[in-house]
């Protein structure tokens, strides 16, 4: 059984999830074989770190927590299962939204249009995942690297060893030629004649970056792309029939021709819905080019004369492309890259160019297979949830909240949020898996379970993580980050969440979500100021209880904000909350639920980390102590508890450091002013 234990540790290690979480990038890249080991890393027994305390796993306190788990968690599942059975309140209303399931005796809740579209087309997407890398390999056999002409100005030769810059440049040309050609075919298949509209927007953005005076590029980039975001929403994708009716109102034939052309709309007629992810790539290209002009015409490997495999991800994102790489072919290859085009994860232009030029040792077949297995497990989990919990269909049917008990109402909201988490996690992991199989390592978007969060800022750092990193690099840091005091920082956070809300969809509900999220961050920030950990060193148990209270409040506020933004809207959430709090009995239920949250969501997860530190090893997915300290996001952790606000830009602290050069500092400051 040892092999099974080792396999499970490897399957659920952070390295399998994303090699960016490895202890040392350079250490993990010493060889491809090191990156592809299937056994978990061996942990060296180390002495306890100073200040840590013995395990509490078998104390009376934690035995009470175990009892709470055993009783409460099954009843949580039972509540939503009971209201999903035939004959339950509202069955006649929400059962119309159910579909035939593959589990005997169960229907499936496939009522979420976004996930239903992905689920129904998953077999075709898997076929594409298999064929796309095979087409690339076939292309590579006919068009070998030595058939390519090197970029102008390159003084290297292909006759050198395989690690030479010349071979890397040739590999970049080969990949971008294929990505450009395949992307055109892919885009036409997706959007039909509307592909021409996408190309036109892409080309206009490229001209803004390359033809305007450099000082105008940031403001022009933001005005153009935010304007496109609004125009796409209000013009509904610019149908030609509508354009003909506006320009030629008296010529019916022109409108008919426009409608006929619009009918060739491809597999996804509403191209503007998916274009939002492309907006981020367009901004990334323009601003990376803007900053690259201040750095010169060489990439970092040429400047520092270091092997590409030993560059950190920070260097790849900041300096991965030379000026000569910012050309039209590479630009279209980046914006049309098929595995990441529809939903991401978001990869910066610099990182895309670097990985297209250099094959990272993290993209191994073994690691991709393990990641694919985790994807399949997530899909199976979602299938079980949709077959046995109809929470999504119930809420979509707008039921009378008075027909449910407070416990049932709370579980309806809770399991809806789990469905939202899974419906986003699964497509993101699929498209990232596709990119991994194709040789590109994009960031993992979901790095922790929805139920394993008790810090508001840490939650958003781990939810759609690639977007968070994009926001930090292109908005938060140029605005000043956390360098202007707490008030300035909160204004920057408000600007960030307002942009995120508008980017998701231009409606009041998501704006309310963005502003609520910013509002709910304030208690956490204020608590860190009032109760800094350094002042509670002599009262650790009291501080632990205070942390639990704060964590419980954070959980409740995060649930409310997420339900408002992604599930129900403001009015329905207000009605649900009224139903939960109505009457003394209901108030007693809420009190008991809060106590369970205090125990379940804070005490045990936080103690897991501390035990590993005391025992000299952290048996958390095979991580060493330093890794646990570095990558634990919990804001009340003994090692980084008071630094949460700075941790909002944990992924980009080095970006602020890199701005030390006068040219880069002026560039980022100008972008911030224009944002």
UniProtKB/TrEMBL annotation:
Membrane topology: Multi-pass membrane protein
Annotated Polar residues bias: 28-39
GO BP terms, alphabetized: GPI anchor biosynthetic process
GO CC field: endoplasmic reticulum; membrane
Keyword terms, alphabetized: Membrane, Transferase, Transmembrane, Transmembrane helix
Gene Ontology MF terms in the entry: O-acyltransferase activity
Region listing for Disordered, in residue ranges: 28-48
PANTHER family assigned to the protein according to its UniProt record, in alphabetical order: ACYLTRANSFERASE (PTHR13285), PROTEIN-CYSTEINE N-PALMITOYLTRANSFERASE RASP (PTHR13285:SF18)
Record-given protein name: Membrane bound O-acyl transferase MBOAT family protein
Naturally occurring in which organism (per UniProt): Aspergillus oryzae
């Amino acid at each position: 059984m040892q092999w099974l234990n080792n396999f499970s540790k490897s399957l659920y290690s952070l390295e399998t999830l994303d090699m960016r979480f490895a202890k040392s990038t350079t250490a993990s890249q010493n060889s491809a074989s090191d990156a592809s080991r299937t056994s978990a890393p061996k942990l060296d027994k180390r002495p306890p770190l100073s200040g840590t305390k013995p395990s509490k796993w078998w104390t009376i306190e934690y035995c009470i927590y175990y009892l709470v788990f055993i009783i409460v968690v099954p009843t949580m599942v039972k509540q939503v299962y009971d209201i999903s059975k035939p004959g339950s309140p509202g069955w006649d209303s929400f059962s119309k939204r159910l579909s035939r399931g593959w589990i005997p005796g169960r229907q499936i809740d496939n009522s979420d249009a976004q996930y239903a579209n992905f689920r129904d087309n998953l077999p075709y997407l898997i076929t594409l995942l298999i064929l796309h890398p095979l087409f690339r390999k076939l292309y590579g056999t006919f068009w070998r690297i030595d058939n390519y002409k090197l970029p102008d100005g390159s003084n290297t030769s292909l006759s050198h060893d395989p690690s030479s810059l010349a071979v890397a440049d040739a590999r970049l040309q080969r990949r971008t030629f294929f990505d450009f050609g395949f992307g055109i075919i892919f885009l036409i298949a997706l959007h039909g004649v509307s592909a021409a509209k996408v190309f036109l927007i892409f080309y206009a953005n490229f001209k803004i970056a390359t033809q305007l005076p450099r000082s105008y590029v940031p403001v022009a980039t933001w005005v153009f792309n935010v304007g496109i975001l609004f125009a796409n929403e209000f013009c509904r994708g610019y149908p030609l029939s509508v354009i003909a009716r506006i320009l030629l109102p008296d010529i019916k034939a022109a409108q008919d021709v426009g409608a006929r052309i619009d009918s060739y709309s491809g597999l996804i007629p509403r191209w503007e819905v998916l274009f939002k992810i492309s907006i981020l790539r367009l901004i990334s290209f323009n601003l990376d080019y803007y900053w690259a002009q201040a750095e010169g015409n060489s990439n970092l490997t040429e400047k520092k004369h270091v092997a590409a495999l030993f560059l950190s991800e920070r260097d790849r994102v900041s300096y991965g492309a030379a000026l000569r790489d910012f050309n039209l072919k590479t630009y279209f290859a980046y914006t049309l890259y098929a595995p990441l085009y529809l939903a991401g994860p978001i990869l910066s232009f610099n990182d895309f160019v670097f990985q297209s030029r250099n094959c990272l040792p993290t993209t191994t077949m073994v690691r991709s297979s393990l990641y694919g297995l985790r994807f399949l497990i997530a899909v199976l989990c979602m299938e079980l949830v949709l077959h046995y919990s109809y929470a999504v269909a119930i809420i979509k049917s707008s039921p009378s909240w008075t027909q449910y008990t407070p416990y049932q109402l709370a579980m309806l909201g809770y399991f809806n949020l789990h469905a939202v988490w899974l419906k986003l996690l699964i497509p993101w992991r699929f498209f990232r898996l596709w990119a991994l199989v194709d040789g590109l390592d994009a960031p993992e978007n979901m790095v922790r379970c929805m139920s394993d969060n008790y810090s508001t800022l840490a939650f958003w750092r781990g939810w759609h993580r690639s977007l968070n990193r994009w926001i930090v690099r292109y908005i938060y840091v140029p605005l000043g980050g956390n360098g202007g005091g707490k008030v300035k920082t909160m204004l920057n956070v408000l600007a960030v969440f307002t942009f995120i809300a508008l980017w998701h969809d231009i409606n009041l509900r998501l704006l309310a979500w963005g502003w609520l999220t910013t509002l709910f961050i304030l208690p956490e920030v204020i608590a860190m100021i009032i109760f800094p950990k350094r002042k509670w060193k002599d009262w650790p148990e009291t501080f632990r209880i205070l942390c639990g209270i704060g964590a419980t409040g954070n959980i409740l506020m995060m649930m409310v904000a997420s339900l408002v933004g992604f599930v129900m809207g403001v009015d329905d959430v207000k009605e649900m909350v009224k139903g939960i709090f109505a009457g003394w009995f209901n108030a007693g239920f809420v009190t008991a639920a809060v106590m369970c949250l205090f125990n379940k969501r804070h005490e045990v997860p936080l103690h897991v980390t501390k035990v590993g530190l005391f025992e000299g090893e952290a048996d958390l997915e095979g991580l060493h102590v330093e890794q646990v300290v570095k990558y634990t996001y919990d804001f009340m952790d003994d090692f980084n508890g008071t630094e949460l606000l700075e941790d909002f830009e944990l992924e980009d602290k080095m970006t602020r450091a890199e701005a030390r050069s006068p040219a880069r500092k002026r560039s980022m400051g100008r972008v911030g002013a224009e944002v």
